[in-house]
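Supplementary notes for students who missed Thursday's class. We covered one full example, reproduced here. Read the sequence, then the structure, then the short commentary at the end.
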Amino acid sequence: MKRSVVMLSVVPVGLLAMLFSASAPAQPAQAGMPIAGRWYKLQNAFRGAGECLEGNQASSPVHGGAAFMDRCQNVSGQSWSFEPVAGGFYRLRTQFQGQEMCLEGNQSSSPAHGGAAFMDRCQNVSGQLWRLVPEGNNFRLRTSFRGDGECLEGSQANQTGHGGAAFMDRCQNVSGQLWNLRPVGGAPAPRPRPPAPPAASERPDHRCGPSFANASCAPGRCCSTHEWCGGPPETHCSTDRGFNGRFDGR
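Structure (token representation):
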């Protein structure tokens, strides 16, 4: 009688481990968090390595004074520092405008800067508190003001929406919301100064006046006839326009 013989092959344990590792799906590396005191360029998956987020001067006519994507180049407005603050948030500043100005995430429907993100005087407002949420090799940028439902989106410079500037939009699966950091050489970022405290009744949405429980604006800012806080670095706060020294809303 013939008997069937089962031949067993001995496979080294190391080889088995290699085979199982090869068949397992690769997990994407998690985006690294910024290091305080260093400069970075901010790029997104939509515009690629050739474009960087640039912090604009609020009074600039370019993109209505808002932050925007531009060709990556050796300009100080594209060098960003990240100051860690409580709760896992960061304040974002540019080398161009220094320690007094921070990136602020705006409400998309706001008339200020066409609803786009902009540089404003650093203060204790929730729109200047940014959280970096890792997603694969990238991360999303959210503010305490707009919460988990909205993310910063880097637009094409010639887009009509928000004048081509970067803006807060509903978080979704679009490449303009997937950001990454590229370290920049040079001198370290200076130690940040504490932000100037606003008036106790300053609202996160910058509304003021009788319709908003007589809320006031931060020191050095003023309430417009349309009940919006404004002032430096804007240029419309004066006493000769018939508004009793209040911001004229433009």
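Commentary. The CA atoms of residues 214 and 230 lie 15 Å apart. The mean pLDDT is 77. If anything here is unclear, bring it to office hours.
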